[in-house]
Amino acid sequence: MTYPLIVLPFVALTVVVTLSTLTRPRFRERMASSGLTALVLVGLTLVFDNIMIAVDLFSYPQEHLSGLKLGLAPIEDFAYPLCAAFLLPALYTLLTPRPLKDTV
């Protein structure tokens, strides 16, 4: 089970960084947008990974997988689009300077 262990730090980082934006404005809107983006990316991953595996463009050593699959695609493949959908907007939010408040 090598691949699930490789994915774990990315998922943990995504959760920590995303939750660190909880106090930033428009958190709910960002989560809704990230969720919609995740659905699209997972759908695309589902279609194209299954096609590429079916035509034998690549394969995975079974001993390194968790054994869970969606079609032919190992479940581990879906962590990366999920992380991208949530981590990138969270990083952008954290790296965008907050507006200065008036000090009158």
Automatic annotation (TrEMBL):
Pathway given in the UniProt record: Carotenoid biosynthesis
Membrane topology field: Multi-pass membrane protein
Residue ranges of every copy of the Lycopene cyclase domain listed in the record: 8-94
Compartment(s): Membrane
Keyword entries, A-Z: Carotenoid biosynthesis, Isomerase, Membrane, Transmembrane, Transmembrane helix
GO CC annotation: membrane
Main localization, broad class: membrane
Molecular function terms, GO-annotated: intramolecular lyase activity; lycopene beta cyclase activity
TM helices/strands, residue ranges: 6-23, 35-58, 78-95
Any one Gene Ontology BP term: carotenoid biosynthetic process
Protein name in UniProt: Lycopene cyclase domain-containing protein
Native source species: Microbacterium enclense
